[in-house]
Amino acid sequence: MQRTGIAKLPLHYGRAPRWLVVRMQKLAREIVTIIVNEYGTAEFLERISDPFWFQALGCVLGYDWHSSGVTTVVTGVLKQAIAQEDHGIAVGGGKGRMSRQAPSEIVNIGEKFGFSNANVETLCYASKMSAKVDNAAIQAGYQLYHHAFFVDENGKWAVVQQGMSTQDRTARRYHWLSGNIRSFVVEPHSGIVGDIKREVALDMTAKESEDCRRTSVDIAKEPPKKTMRMLMSVRPTYQKSIQEWLPKIADAAWKDYPIDVLSMPRNINWKMLKAVYEFQPKNYEELLGFRGVGPATVRGLALVAELVYGEKPSWKDPVKYSFAYGGKDGVPYPVNRKAMDQSIHMLKQAIQEAKVGDKDKMWFLQRLRQFVPEDLIH
């Protein structure tokens, strides 16, 4: 993505009204049907992974133009609207507890699509790593609470997930597409949408963090006692340490960043680090994917890599922006129900004018009749 900036994505609570969700599901099902039949499942996944198109879809479906609810409601609507047998696409995961069900849902999806065990394991790994990266490798104050995994009949996938910051009541959305990924830990995102652009944020996925990633792995492969000594040696300037005898190095290390961002975590899991040492990860992806390695461990290793070995990670916030308009809460204006119905009518016109055979057109129209008022068909 070449465009960068900021969009308003405030954290909203509550539920979408039933009348809105029903209309959203009807319209979403037809939109997915047209895209899949005209362009294929891969094109749909690519559009879902584009934060601009995703936001626009939320607007077309009638949801808040700027709300955090765009993510949770639109993905929830798509999960209900998409039929695996008809569209060749399935959706797993969701908000809160539903997000943790993604692995088991992926297994069920794989069985219906006839995937091999190896392919299912690959998909489960993609689900796990995308969540791990956005929860631990990128640290800007957001805790993931939503994870939606889209997969098609060919094994291609996309992820839309969101984190929240309760401190400033903002949300941040992360988009992934399997076709764009060369590495899970090197700038893997199709886009990141947020309201706040942090002055300082730890981004271990940035290309600039390559040396820090490599050094973090080297540190983790050292005996835990040695790693503990290194971690304990890294202190803020107000604490007693050897840095008092090295004022220039101390100033250089701590001057540019807020102490709360660079403060060493207090809850390092030393038993887990011992297990990592015994495992001897080959690269940063294996380190990050190791069970128990979380934000505290990632930050601790990154700080040691910078302050002890001079391998600086990226502290630039990777957030990008999106934009849209409309909204159920009347901001900037309320949902126009008539306009939504007209949009459904426009889909019917699109089917009639599509360059497909008469038999296919009749099939599309018969499906459309199941979801829209009869007067709109005639």
- Rg over C-alpha atoms, rounded to the nearest angstrom: 24 Å
Structural domain tally: 3
Structural class: alpha+beta
Sequence of secondary-structure elements: HHHHHEHHEEEEEEHHHHHHHHHH
The residue fraction in helices comes out at: 40-55%
Shape: elongated
Mean pLDDT: 79
Helix count, DSSP H or I runs of 4 or more residues: 17
Strand line-up in the sheet with most strands: 1-3-4-5-6
Descriptive notes:
The protein is of the alpha+beta class and 378 residues long. It has 3 domains: 18-198, no CATH class; 207-307, no CATH class; 337-377. The protein is 49% helix and 11% strand. It has 17 helices and 7 strands. A hairpin with a 4-residue loop joins strand 3 (143-152) and strand 4 (157-165). Mean pLDDT is 79; it is low at 1-9, 249-259 and 322-335.
Features:
single chain, 378 residues, alpha+beta, elongated, 3 domains
Write the layout of secondary structure elements.
Elements (H helix, E strand, L loop, with lengths): L17 H22 L1 H8 L2 H10 L8 H13 L2 H4 L1 E7 L6 H12 L3 H21 E2 L3 E10 L4 E9 L4 E8 L13 E4 L7 E2 L6 H11 L3 H10 L13 H8 L4 H4 L7 H10 L4 H6 L5 H13 L29 H17 L4 H12 L4 H4 L1
Antiparallel strand pairs: 1-3, 2-7, 3-4, 4-5, 5-6
Helix pairs in contact: 1-2, 1-4, 1-15, 6-7, 8-14
Offer a concise description of the structure:
This protein has 378 residues and is of the alpha+beta class. Helices cover 49% and strands 11% of the residues.
